[in-house]
Amino acid sequence: MIDSYSDFRSALLLWYDQNQRMLPWRTKPSLYNTVVSEFMLQQTQIKTALPYFERWLIRFPDFHSLAEAETESVLKYWEGLGYYNRARNLHKLAQCLVDADAIPDTPDAWKALPGIGDYTAAAISSIAQNHPSAVVDGNVVRVLARLTNDDTNFSSNAQAVKQFTVLANQLLDSKRPGDANQAMMELGATLCTKGQPQCQCCPLKTFCLGFQAGKPEGLPAITRAKRTQVQENRAFIIREQRLLLYKIPSDAKRLKDHYELPSLEALGLTKDSKHLKKLTSKKRGISNQVITETVYELDTALNPIEEKEPFYWIDLKSIDRILLSGPHKRWIRDLLMLL
């Protein structure tokens, strides 16, 4: 496949030097910027994370300011990115680093800290500290599977990552490991894409067995978990310029202490009630679930609901100051504009 690792590395890095996207954590590199960006980019696309990253750095410019912040403030600035445990772990990580005698400088040392696994540890230590450790994500798996024309039917992405990590480390440029890792991920995100890889523009096409075989778009072969369809019915109830919201318990697995529109079931209602009017239906994905949420308006004249935990009447002027589930925040804003 690759006769010369040196030629491969040179081709990849030359392409990256000339074509890399100018992202804020690249144009203003620092350990802090790398850590924040890597946490934000876990399960979030770059285009989504960019405005959050810029806003975050204004409010929390370094580890000390983040460590000293209140948890509620940290979560508020994360609001909309989802997977809020990332924000909680980033907050804990900052506190650990501020109290530490020394900053970790190897992947194993980073993995001992909150919220950091193999991928994030390799990314931080290679990009910010020049440690030669390969980063392997879905983009890198796709590039390597096509380079080797490996048609193994992997049972999961994790299995594919495990298999290709050895090769990724062999190919890594030890003199510029951070740039080499970012180059591989950048290639997978911009040229070696899932559906229509731009092979003619690829700097690695002369090394690529998948390209030579004429079928790179079919790789890698990974069995994806079947997505479960979930139906939720929500109530949109306004009374005297206050909106009824449900507060998620502090011990919940997801979105703890956040507010969201209450479910009809929690209010003892069904979607067949004659007092309900359908307002909208929205779809969103969480892990392997596709959730369809239908929002209904309840006639306020027939609304007997009083404030009692976990239901709270929130003044409409205060909506932006509470912790809201990201999708529900958008839906509430859109629905209020129709009133």
Class computed from helices, strands and strand pairing: alpha/beta
- Give the overall silhouette: globular
Largest sheet: 4 strands, antiparallel
Number of strands: 9
Name the helix and strand elements from N-terminus to C-terminus, one letter apiece: HHHHHHHHHHEHHHEEEEEEEEH
Write down the overall mean pLDDT.
93
| SS summary, helix count | 14
Q: Assess the beta-strand content as a share of residues.
A: 5-15%
In the CATH hierarchy, the third-tier topology of the largest domain is known as Endonuclease III, domain 1
Percentage of residues assigned to helices: 40-55%
**CATH homologous superfamily descriptor of the largest domain:** Hypothetical protein, domain 2
The number of domains is 2
Query: Whole-Å distance between the termini?
Result: 63 Å
Which regions contain 5 or more consecutive residues with pLDDT less than 50?
A: none
What is the level 1 CATH name of the largest domain? Mainly Alpha
Query: C-alpha Rg, in Å?
Result: 24 Å
Under the CATH scheme, which architecture of the largest domain would be assigned?
Answer: Orthogonal Bundle
